[in-house]
Design a protein that fits this description.
mainly alpha; globular
Length: about 90
């Protein structure tokens, strides 16, 4: 996945964190959901974001928030299950 796509994911996550009054540093490997930094509404927004931006089809892959718990995991998930996976 390109750096531009990684930055798109990071920007989305930063925006979600700011919505939760969390402006702490963001490391690509740190837990976002299981740690409680982001909540279930953020998970829903992330699913929509991945469907719209990367054409991820959640109907063909079982959803598990543990697979989307860090920027690094989200980027990998989009690469594996989104439109970019076919490239």
């Amino acid at each position: 996945m390109t750096n531009a796509n990684r930055e798109l994911v990071r920007t989305f996550i930063r925006d979600c964190l700011v919505t939760h009054n969390d402006e702490d540093e963001l490391d690509d490997r740190e837990s976002l959901f299981l740690s409680g930094r982001l909540d279930s509404l953020s998970v829903t927004k992330l699913v929509v974001f991945l469907e719209e931006q990367f054409s991820v089809d959640f109907g063909s892959h079982p959803f598990d928030v543990a697979e989307l718990d860090s920027v690094e995991q989200i980027v990998q998930f989009a690469a594996d299950y989104g439109a970019l996976a076919a490239e």
